[in-house]
Amino acid sequence: MLKMIDKSWLPLLEPEFNKPYFKSLWHFVEEEYETGVCYPPKSDIFNAFNSCAFQDVKVVILGQDPYHGEGQANGLCFSVADGIPHPPSLKNIFKEIESDLGTTYPVSGNLERWAKQGVLLLNATLTVREHMAGSHQKKGWETFTDHVISLINSEKEGVVFLLWGGFAKKKSKLIDANKHHILTSGHPSPLSANRGYWFGNKNFSATNFLLAQNKRPVVEW
User: Fold this and answer.
1) Distance (Å, rounded) from C-alpha 72 to C-alpha 82?
2) Do residues 146 and 174 touch, judged by C-beta distance below 8 A?
3) Pick from 82, 85, 163: nearest CA to 124
4) Model pLDDT, residue 4
5) How far apart are CA 103 and CA 119, in angstroms?
6) Is 6 a catalytic residue?
7) Among the four residues 55, 59, 83, 144, which has the most C-beta atoms within 10 Å?
């Protein structure tokens, strides 16, 4: 498993891997992948870390669960593999970017292009069983990803955290708002967006404004 993690993250996360809760979690994950169909592909479970080195993290977007349909999840929250139709939440994200920044709706839903610019796309739970949303929740992943958020909070400064929806907003307790920036909104899912809690949040232009203020390169959304 240690070979699955980018070297920039490994010294920071290895102590967590040695804790009893994580060993139990990883045993569960391996058993699930051996006995059923799970997503993302096992090689992509830690893709959020492998696509965005620790020293490059300047924005964090928090999701809850990987997509549980065939071929969708690629280990980055809200992202899908190239050539896969965009799920409703991702469509609404792209529509808000169009409106906020005046850009063109993208062809690909693969958000690796964001990760390469320093956007950590972190789901609270990193795996899921096919067609069973939430099936790997409360097995230990949340403890691990809370640790990741706390690590970024303590070791870095001026990171922009995008917390969308009630679940993500609860993570604000792990973030020092005096050191970092927290932008919140309703969730981009149709249920929330169609009630007026998503569109018009301008989180993407606000993120770039904050990055520019800190003399950091803005994100090409």
Assistant:
1) 9
2) yes
3) 163
4) 82
5) 19
6) no
7) 59
